[in-house]
TrEMBL record, chains A, B:
SUPFAM superfamilies listed in its UniProt record: Acyl-CoA dehydrogenase C-terminal domain-like, Acyl-CoA dehydrogenase NM domain-like
The keyword Lipid metabolism is assigned to this record: yes
Positions bound to FAD: 164, 203
Family the UniProt entry places it in: Belongs to the acyl-CoA oxidase family.
Subcellular location: Peroxisome
Name under which the protein is recorded: Acyl-coenzyme A oxidase
Predominant cellular place of this UniProt entry's protein: other
Keywords (A to Z) from UniProt: FAD, Fatty acid metabolism, Flavoprotein, Lipid metabolism, Oxidoreductase, Peroxisome
Organism: Spodoptera frugiperda
Designated gene of the protein: LOC118266995
Domain of life where this protein originates: Eukaryota
Cofactor(s) in the UniProt record: FAD
Length: 698, 698
C-alpha cells in the first residue's frame, strides 16, 4: 500500500515535470469543475517515457529560432525551404533511435505526435525521406543494398517513394512505368511512355530527394512479371541536379501540406544497374529468368499485407492529431466566448453551455479520445508485427496480417472522415473568428483533407475490408479464433441467434449503458454484413457478373458495412481501455466518453436499425435523448479533457485556443502585428486615382 | 404554330450566340448520350437577357489583362491589390445600371454570377463598396444624405458596413460601440471602450473604404436608445489616411476570400456632425429628444425585416455558385477518369459509372439545379419587395416580410451546408488530383466556408425560423392565406389529419414519384414542427424558463425543423419550376432531378420518419434503392447537365474540369509551367550541406 502510494507520488512528480501548470485566466472556472486530474488522464494513451520524449522534442523546438511561428503565410518556395531545414535539424537530433522503438513501441507515435503537432509538413517529410525509404529497402532489398540505408541514415542522400502514376492510382495493375531487363548489359531500362505514366504525388521528390523507390513493371524476355520495386538515383547528391534521362519536377501548390514538395518523375530510357532491383521477394537472375524464394505464396502474401498496412496505420494517427488540435481550440474558445443568456442575467452565457454547441463538439471530443487510444494501440501492434516478421516465425502472422489489412483499410477512412467532420464542426462552432487564418482550424482541415484520398481514396479502400468480410461471411460456420487473432470478427459469435434479437431497452438510461451500446453495435455490424451479402447474392442471382454485383452493392451496403465494422472495433477497444484504466476518477469520465461515442455513432445508423427490425416505435428517441444528456454531463469536464489532449501553445498556434483562454487579447495582438495591418497599402494610389488605369465612364 | 417555330428558332440562334459550341474531345461520348439540349436547359433559370449580360461581362474580362489567371497564389497584399483594381475596372463598365434591375430582376443575379464565377473576392468587394453602402443610406437616410450616394456612385468614395464587434456578433443587443449626442455642439461622439468593442469583419475596410455605415448605441440625455446607424468618415478620400480618432486596420489572412480586405475599426471619442445619423426611421432632434415616425411599429418592423433579408438572400445565391463550379469540375473529371473495369474489358471504366461515385455526386447535381432555380426566384422576390417598398404601400408587405425573414433564415444555412457537403464530396470524388490547388476545389471550399458563419452563424440563424414556426403552430387553428403570402406554411393544411397518415407506398416506383416524395416531405415538416412544439411544452411543464426551454429543444428538434422547412419549400419550388418548363426533353430530365433531390433529402431523415410512425418495416429501403436507381438513370445526362451549369473555362480555372475534358494534358501544362517547378531551388545548398546549419551528430 505504502509502496503504491510512493510510486503514485513519483508518477505525479514526473507528470508535473513534463506538464507544467497551465496559466490562470478565464478558463479557470471550467477547470475547477472537472472531477479528474488532467495530467493523469494523459496515461490513457501515453506513458512517462513518451511524455518525456515529447517534452524533449518540444523543448528543443521552443528554444530554436527555426521553429518560430510567423503570422503571414509564406510563398510556396519558402514553405518548402523552411520545412526542409527543420527536417534536417530535427533528424540530426536523433530524438528517437531505432532501437528505442522496440523497447517502447509507444515512443514511435509519441515522436510522430510531437512533430505533427508543430508542423505537419516537417513531420511528413522526415518520415518519407528517412523512415519509409529505409523500410522499403529493409523489406525488399538484399545485403548489397544496405549501404544505401547507411547513407540515408547519415543523411548523405534522401529518399522518396514513387508508386502512383498520373492516370493510375488505386488500380496498381494498370501502371505503365516499365523496367526492361537487358541481360547483355546486366541493366534495366526504366521508361515512362508519356506524362500519364509519370510517377506523381511523390512526397519530397519535388525539390529534395536524391533517390526514389520506384514501382515498375518488370519485363524480361518479353514477359511482364508485374510490379516490382527498384531503388533509383534521381539527383546527384552533391549538386541536386537530376541525372540525364530523368525528368523530375514539382507538382506545385496543393490544398494543404505545402511544406511537402510533392513531385513527379518521368524516365526516358534510363539505364540502371541490375542491382537497382530490390529483389529479395522475387526478380530476374543475370540471364533474365524470373526467380522467387516463395514456397507458400498465400501465407507470405498475408504477412506482407500486414506490414504494408504501415501507411494506413500511420494515417489513423495523423487524422487523430489534426482533430486533437481542432477540438482543443474549439472547446477552449467555446468556454470563454460568451453570447446571450437568460433574461436579467448579469453575464452572458459561455457558448459551451448551449445544447447545439455541445452536440457539435462533445461527440467529437469523445471520438478524439477513442481515436487517440486506438491509434496508439494500432501503431504498437503494427510495430510488434514488423519486428516479429524480422526476427522469425509467428504462427499467426498470416491471419493477423490479413486481419490488420482489413481493419486498417476500414479505420483509415473512418478516422479521416471523422476528423474531416469534427474539424468542420470545430470551425463553425468558432463562428466568424474561426474563419481567421490565425485561428488555425482552416489549415487543419486542409492538411487532413489529404488523409481522405492518399494511400487509397477512402470509398475505394473500404472495398478491401468489405471484400474480406463477405468472404468471411460465406464461411462463417467454420470460423475459428485463428481466423481473427485481433478479435475483429467477434461480432459473428452466435450470429444467427444475434440477428433474431429485438432491442429490449426502452429508457434513456438503459440505452446509454456502455455494454448495451456495444451490444447494439454488434447487432448492427452483423446485420450490415448479412444485408450486404444478400444484396450481392441477389445481384448475382439476376445474372450480374462479379464486377457488376460488387459495384452495385457498394452504397448503403458494402461501404457502410466497412465503416460500421471499423466503428465497432474502435468502440470496443475504447470501452476496454476505459474499464482497465487504473485511476478511478479518470475511469468514470472515460466511461461517459465511451457512452457518448457509442450513442453518437449509433444515432447515425438509426434508420438501418429500424429497417433491420432491431428498433421499433420511438426507441430511436432514447438514443438521441441519451446523446444530449451525456453531452450535458460531460460539458463541465470538457476543458480539462482538452487540456489533457493539448500540445503546448507554440504548437497550437491558434489565437482562439491558447491555454490562458485570452482569445480576444490574442486576436488583438495577432491582428495588430500582422505585417502591414495598420499601414496604408503601397498601392493606395490605385484606390484614389483608379481612373489612371480605368478611364472613367461614370 | 409557324410563329412559335420562328420564335423558337430565334431563341436557338441567340443561345448559340452567347453559348458557343464546346470543344470536341473525351467528353463527347457522354455528351452524345444526353436526351436534351444543354443550351435550352439554361432557360430553367436564365433568360436571353441574362445570358447576354453574362456573355458581355465574361467577354470583357477575357480580353482584359487584369483578368488573367496566374498559377501561383499571390501574397496577401497582392491579392488585395488585384481584387481592388478589378473592382474599379468592372464597376466603371456599368454592365448593369440600377434601372435595368427593375426591368428584369433576374439580371441582378446574373451580374453577381458572372463576377463570382470569375473571382469571389472581386464580387464581394464590389457589392460591399457600392451596393450595400448605397442601399443602407437609401433605406435609413434622408435627402441630405443623398449626395453621399452620388459620391459613391461616381466612385469618389468607397463604403463598407460595420455591425459585428469583436466580442459580439449575433447578439446585437450586447454591442458596445456608443454614439453619444451632445446638443451644445450638435455632434455625436463615437467611442469604442476597448478592443472587444471594435467593429470587425468589415469587408473592404481593411485597406480601402473611406466611409462606413456604423451600428452604434445611440445615447442621449443619459438614455440608451439602442442600435442606430451612422455614416462615418474613416479615411480621407484624397490620401486614404485614417482621420484622427479612428484606429483602423486589416484583419489579416483568412481561410478564404483573401482578396477581400476585412478590417476592424475602433473610435476614440470621435466627433461626428449630427447629420452623420441615418435617422429616417428614428433618431434625436437637435435638443437630443428621441423622435420616430412610426405609427404601427410591428407592421413596419415586418417590412423592414424583409428588406434586411437581403444579405441572406444573396448568400443563398453565393453558396450555389460555389457548388455549381465544384460539381462541374467533379463530374467532367469523373467522366474522363477511367479506373478498373470488368475482367477482360478492353478499356477501363469511367469512374462516373461506379455506384459509389454516382451517389456522391449526382444528388448534389440535383441539389445544384434546385438551388439555382430557387436562388434566382428568391432574388427576384426580394428585389420586387424592395422596389414596392420604395414606391408605396403593399397590403401584404408586413406578412411577406416576416415570412421572407423566416424563409431566408432557413435557406441561407441550408444552402451553405449543402454546398459545404457537396463541394467536399466533389473534392474527394476527384481523388488525389483533387488535392492539387490547380483543381480549384480547395478554394471553393475555403470561400464557401464563410457562408456558414457570416450574416449569422448557421445554427443560430435557424432559430429565427424555428421561433416563428413555433409561434405559428400555437395559432395554427386560425391561420389564413394572409399569414403565408409565399406559401411556405402550406404544409399546415389539414395538419391534424396529415399527421395521422401512414406512408402507403411499398415499391421503389411509388416512392420515387415526385408528387409522393413531396407529400412525404409535407408530413415530415409537419411532424418536425409538432415534435419540437411538444418538446418545448414538455420543458416548460417541467418548470424551465423560456431561455432554457428554447435552448434544450434545439438539437434534433428546432434546428432540424428549420432545415426541413427550408428543404420542403425548395423542393416544392423545384417541382413547380420543372413542371412548368416548356421544353419537353428538358422537363423530363428536370423531373428526374426533382425526384433525386427529394429522395436524397428524405433519406437523411429516414430515422425520424420511423420514429414518427410514418414508415414501418423495410419501407426505408425503397428510398435508398430509389435514390440509387435515379442516380443510374441520370448518369448519362450528367455531363450535359453540368455543361449547362458551367461558366467559361477561364472562370472555372480547373485543370480537371475544362470543357475539352483533357484533364491530364491540363495537369501537365499547369505543373510544368508553375514558376520554378522544373528548376533546382535557390536553397539547394541547404539540402546538400545541411551540416552548415545543423552540425552533424549522426
Amino acid at each position: 500500500m505504502l509502496k503504491k502510494m510512493a510510486k503514485d507520488q513519483g508518477i505525479q512528480e514526473q507528470l508535473r515535470l513534463y506538464l507544467p501548470d497551465l496559466p490562470k485566466g478565464p478558463l479557470d472556472a471550467y477547470r475547477k469543475k472537472a472531477t479528474f486530474d488532467w495530467r493523469r488522464m494523459k496515461l490513457a494513451y501515453d506513458n512517462l517515457n513518451t511524455l518525456k520524449l515529447k517534452h524533449d522534442i518540444w523543448s528543443f523546438m521552443e528554444s530554436h529560432p527555426l521553429f518560430k511561428h510567423t503570422e503571414a503565410t509564406r510563398v510556396l518556395d519558402e514553405e518548402r525551404h523552411i520545412a526542409t531545414k527543420r527536417m534536417y535539424t530535427i533528424y540530426n537530433e536523433q530524438f528517437l533511435r531505432f532501437e528505442k522503438i522496440a523497447e517502447d513501441p509507444k515512443s514511435f507515435q509519441a515522436e510522430s505526435e510531437a512533430l505533427f503537432m508543430f508542423d505537419s509538413s516537417l513531420a511528413v517529410k522526415i518520415s518519407l525521406t528517412f523512415r519509409m525509404f529505409s523500410n522499403a529497402i529493409q523489406g525488399n532489398g538484399k545485403s548489397h543494398h544496405y549501404p544505401i540505408i547507411e547513407d540515408v541514415e547519415k543523411a548523405k542522400i534522401g529518399g522518396c517513394f514513387a508508386l502512383t502514376e498520373v492516370s493510375h492510382g488505386s488500380n496498381a495493375k494498370g501502371m505503365r512505368t516499365t523496367a526492361t531487363y537487358i541481360p547483355e548489359k546486366k541493366q534495366f531500362v526504366m521508361h515512362s511512355a508519356d506524362f500519364e505514366a509519370a510517377k506523381c504525388w511523390v512526397g519530397s521528390l519535388g525539390k529534395c530527394a536524391t533517390h526514389a523507390i520506384v514501382y515498375a513493371m518488370l519485363i524480361s524476355k518479353g514477359k511482364n512479371h508485374g510490379l516490382h520495386t527498384f531503388v533509383v538515383p534521381i539527383r546527384d547528391p552533391k549538386t541536386l541536379k537530376p541525372y540525364p534521362g530523368v525528368i523530375v519536377g514539382d507538382l506545385g501548390e496543393k490544398i494543404g501540406l505545402n511544406g511537402v514538395d510533392n513531385g513527379f518523375v518521368m524516365f526516358n530510357n534510363y539505364h540502371l544497374p541490375k542491382e537497382a532491383a530490390l529483389d529479395k521477394l522475387g526478380g530476374v537472375d543475370d540471364n533474365g529468368d524470373y526467380q522467387t524464394p516463395f514456397r507458400d505464396p498465400s501465407k507470405r502474401f498475408g504477412a506482407a499485407l500486414g506490414i504494408l498496412s504501415g501507411g494506413r496505420v500511420h494515417i489513423t494517427a495523423i487524422s487523430t492529431y489534426y482533430l486533437q488540435k481542432a477540438i482543443v481550440i474549439a472547446i477552449r474558445y467555446s468556454a470563454v466566448r460568451k453570447q446571450f443568456g437568460p433574461e436579467n442575467a448579469k453575464e452572458e452565457t459561455p457558448v459551451l453551455e448551449y445544447q447545439q454547441q455541445q452536440i457539435r463538439l462533445l461527440p467529437y471530443l469523445a471520438a478524439t479520445y477513442a481515436m487517440k487510444i486506438f491509434s496508439v494501440w494500432l501503431s504498437c501492434l503494427h510495430i510488434n508485427m514488423t519486428i516479429s516478421s524480422y526476427v522469425g516465425e509467428d504462427a499467426n502472422a498470416a491471419a493477423r496480417g490479413i486481419e490488420l489489412h482489413a481493419l486498417s483499410s476500414a479505420v483509415k477512412p473512418l478516422f479521416g472522415w471523422t476528423s474531416r467532420d469534427g474539424i468542420q464542426n470545430c470551425r463553425e462552432a468558432c463562428g466568424g473568428h474561426g474563419y481567421l487564418k490565425a485561428a488555425a482550424i482552416g489549415d487543419l482541415r486542409n492538411d487532413n483533407d489529404a488523409n481522405c484520398t492518399y494511400e487509397g481514396e477512402n470509398s475505394l479502400l473500404l472495398q478491401q475490408t468489405s471484400n474480406w468480410l463477405l468472404n468471411v461471411w460465406a464461411r462463417r460456420e467454420t470460423l475459428t479464433a485463428d481466423d481473427s487473432p485481433l478479435g475483429s470478427l467477434q461480432f459473428l459469435q452466435n450470429v444467427d441467434q444475434l440477428l433474431q434479437e429485438k432491442c429490449p431497452w426502452n429508457s434513456v438510461q438503459e440505452f446509454m449503458e456502455p455494454a448495451n451500446l456495444i451490444h447494439a453495435y454488434k447487432w448492427l455490424t452483423a446485420f450490415m454484413l448479412k444485408m450486404t451479402a444478400e444484396k450481392v447474392a441477389l445481384l448475382k442471382g439476376q445474372g450480374k457478373d462479379n464486377f457488376s454485383a460488387k459495384n452495385e452493392s457498394q452504397s448503403y451496403n458494402a461501404v457502410t458495412l466497412s465503416v460500421v465494422y471499423g466503428e465497432n472495433y474502435v468502440l470496443n477497444n475504447f470501452y476496454k481501455a476505459a474499464q482497465e484504466f487504473d485511476d478511478a476518477n479518470c475511469r468514470a469520465v472515460l466511461l461517459k466518453l465511451v457512452a457518448l461515442y457509442g450513442s453518437f455513432l449509433l444515432e447515425k445508423h438509426l434508420a438501418t436499425l429500424y429497417i433491420g427490425g432491431y428498433l421499433r416505435g420511438e426507441q430511436g428517441l432514447c438514443v438521441r435523448e441519451g446523446t444530449l444528456s451525456l453531452c450535458r454531463d460531460i460539458s463541465p469536464e470538457a476543458v480539462a479533457l482538452v487540456d489533457s489532449l493539448a500540445p503546448p501553445d507554440f504548437c497550437l498556434k491558434s489565437v482562439l485556443g491558447m491555454s490562458d483562454g485570452e482569445a480576444y487579447k490574442h486576436i488583438q495582438s495577432s491582428v495588430m502585428t500582422y505585417p502591414g495591418s495598420m499601414t496604408r497599402p503601397e498601392w493606395w494610389r490605385d484606390v484614389v486615382y483608379w481612373q489612371s488605369y480605368a478611364p472613367s465612364k461614370l
